[in-house]
Amino acid sequence: MLALSLYGVFLILDMRAIHGQIEDEKIRESLGERPYIIMIGEVEDHAYWNLVRDGGKAYAEAHHMYLHYMGPENPNPNDQRDLLRQAIDIKPDGLIVQGISDTFIPLINEAIARGIPVVTVDSDQPDSDRISYVGTDNYAMGQAMARDVLSHVETIKAGVITGSETNDHHQLRLAGIESVLNESDQAEILSVAVSNIKRVNAREKTYQMLRDYPEINVLVGVSALDVIGMTEAMDVLGREDIYVVGFDTLKENLELLAKGRVDTLVSQQPYEMGMRSMDVIRTILDGHDVPEMIHTESRLVRDVTQ
């Protein structure tokens, strides 16, 4: 019975794969001469990644290209890597991928060896054969966040919520924060917790952190939804005495900034990342050289009018 059940599962998976292949072939046939590009993001549906996708699709539409966006249902580097494997086998004209882990390097290198240009976006793997990276200088922005805290809080007892303990861009941001705060006599990081880029996790981890370390007077959010979860936990505990700094000027984050619930946000340009990564792919396909690093604009925002 177990063997039959497993056979049924594998049969379903095989049929899905065949269906996906057929659908891909139909897409390729309908495109004619239009380049077929695949973008693999951190997750299928997420406020930040939707902007990256939309920027890429807008560029594709304006330049007679086709962009197929893919991402796992939930953040999972293994699932993301599986999508990259599938994408390479499809043999698109170009690949744009978030290089969140060095486990992606062999697949990136394989794609390049098979003649598929690869551009990393949002998070880089510089030791791979990828042609170019488009996105924020994550380490530098982590340092900028920490310097902002130092300039506004006299004695710092900090808690940090990071999106992932494995994704390279989150680790670069955290390393930038630590490099500044750990060198200061007025600062101490009391706790670091992981939200897995989910609002509810950020809320739960922040709540527990503030219960364990009530002396915390600074909260730093490393990924886009951390700020929302952090302020929700502060509300439950009645904490209004905490300096809050976080990543990304999403609508809800800006509303919190306008209300004075958040003190500083890092403004990235996800829409521009999507557009510029597509522009890099197009330039490569046209036979031209491209820069190895393209850092999109990022800055600190303390006022919604900035």
Automatic annotation (TrEMBL):
InterPro entries: Bact_Solute-Bind_Prot2, Peripla_BP_I, SBP_2_dom. Transmembrane segments: none annotated. Residues 39-288 form the Periplasmic binding protein domain. It is found in: Cell envelope. Belongs to the bacterial solute-binding protein 2 family. This is Periplasmic binding protein domain-containing protein.
